[in-house]
């Protein structure tokens, strides 16, 4: 591989980035290297490039790279240098967002826990100890990038870097120290001598030469704080993330395209989709708390790396259309006039060339007909029309001509079970060893209720709190535990008394249960569990977790008198589960294993399950269906798939029709009402054996579940639909080596319905099916000219004709 030895100059002005003297529009997409795998990276990057992007953006995740102070890890899926080299091999630019605070729905915002445990430290403010650690880490990353010649100034792909992240949103409570800190960040970054520009997102007072940028759903009205800075949209939120108990957020392709077109209409220079591929929160990386394991984000590439159609294709066509106007749009010479309320014509001019955009920001109403240069342009509500030369419509954000793909999950069959519907897994099991903790035996003691994340150093979701109380007669009392943890399980005298879980919109909860104390010594054992740590807000790192401070009290039968406050008694502690320290999740550890071959119990708390399975054939992504399980953690061959919690159901209300018009918010256009928040968990193919050896699935079940329904499936496109307007080209494809095996429906005229339920309208070309079959059947992809040339003339009155197609993939 030959990397360019020639430095690339990256400069900018108010109108655009200028790379090697050429003005360019930057279409970037976020792909976070640890949310996928090394093996997936080349395919994700290629699909991003095919989608019309010319840059890839990622954060750098401090907690994963420096889990212990000065002990670094850049191996495997943490090899960001390799990631950027693949970006360069694809001929794309890189955008490096160091932070090193990242937010990103990542546990603790990406800060390693040792940082918080450093004496005298205060994070994200003008604190010398913190600044020293931050500078050491930032310098380490920059030096590694320089060593690999990754900066454009060295002939590498990285054209811009970021320091800090969305600090402006939380800065006010930090006062003068916050201001001093931001100035220090800027100076420290510039002193790194990367030879490329630096930016700060959501930082209206960013000091020069930092470029301040905008994050959100819409950024057309954003103006940088320097007249010399280009207008940057660093996070165009293409969807939203999901928490346990929540529905699936969906942001329509029409609305995303509208936001992008409006941004470039008004002088935008750089748009980055957050996310372009969201991926998966493997391990314990999901933050929140209560953020789900999937980080799909409704991105153009779905969690598994499949094209999310029509979003991917609709944006690809937008990028192509904007690229046609690049020379004009980057010149910075434009005028804007309102034609009628809510409808604006923006004319960009460069020399003799022109490019126009007509936006209709009305949320409802009839399409507006705009007369311009002898043409009439039909602009629907909440849409933007792009006109090449100001006289030829090349794109409208509300008119989707890209295909829609419907995915199907096919259960994988075992080679030995060809005649069975599916391969039922055979389970071995092991109880979580709890004799020590139920008897109150810990590893260390304190005469107070400790804060969980600092006590565990975040090596586990679990912390045991144990104490004992003497009473002189048997009595019934109430145990009351106030916790800022996310889940609590309580035991008294080795007997389970109850559990409680919090929810995403509350801070902690109070657990209460009647308990019987017997004469003499009584042992109280509490297990607190976290579900990801807070990652956002002013001083978010100080938010307590666990039973920190309590109080833990015994209440009398009247449910009001406090009989005993145990908060400052002597408490014993144990970090994590015995099964975690014995590495039960890793089948490669060869010591005495407690696995039992008797029939696996169901609905049993604190239980480990183990089963073998064969790698599903083909290249389609693989998922494991954990419906029936409660809450816990899953591993394949020792690789963590993340936390599972299919017993938590999404709100059953609010799903239904979706209107793309009007401002987006995460409660608009939701799906998956009343279903498990997450039932399917991604198993990357690189986690499995490709050599015919069987694989091991291990589940730790905390609440009680039934593993009998667990199964593996592949995810592939079953149906590809297209719905395109006359005068456009419809592209259809099946992906992953599948071919178009048949045309289930085709009609050129005025078809009605949607993918899966199309029907012919009043007018229709009778050669629709045969023409589409001729063009597509037997191919992996095809393109059809949607015009009378292909389908003959059809009289539909003054209606705009469309072609609708439904194809099967096999």
Q: What is the name of the CATH topology of the largest domain? A: TIM Barrel
Tell me the radius of gyration. Answer: 29 Å
Global shape: globular
CATH architecture of the largest domain: Alpha-Beta Barrel
Content of β-strand: 25-35%
What does this structure look like?
The protein is built from 14 helices and 41 strands. 15% of the residues lie in helices and 32% in strands. It folds into 5 domains: 10-331, Glycosidases (TIM Barrel), CATH 3.20.20; 333-398; 407-432 and 581-714, Jelly Rolls; 435-576, Galactose-binding domain-like (Jelly Rolls, Sandwich), CATH 2.60.120; 726-809, Rhamnose-binding lectin domain (RBL) (Jelly Rolls, Sandwich). Helix 7 (253-265) packs parallel to helix 8. An 8-stranded parallel barrel has the order 4-5-6-7-8-9-10-11, surrounded by 4 helices. Strands 19, 32, 35, 37, 39 and 41 form a 6-stranded antiparallel β-sheet that branches. Helix 7 (253-265) links the parallel strand 10 (231-237) and strand 11 (268-277). The model is unreliable at 1-5 and 416-420 (pLDDT under 50). It is globular and about 95 Å long. The protein has 810 residues and is of the alpha+beta class. The longest helix is centred in the N-terminal third of the chain and has 20 residues, at 128-147.
